[in-house]
Amino acid sequence: MSASRTKFYLDKQNSKWLGVCSGIADYTGVDVTWVRVGAVLLTVAGGFPWTLIAYWLVAWMAEKKPYGLYETPEDAKFWQGVRSNPRRSTAEVRSKFRDIDRRLADIEVMYTSRNSRLADEIDSLR
Question: What is the pTM of this model?
Answer without folding.
Answer: 0.61
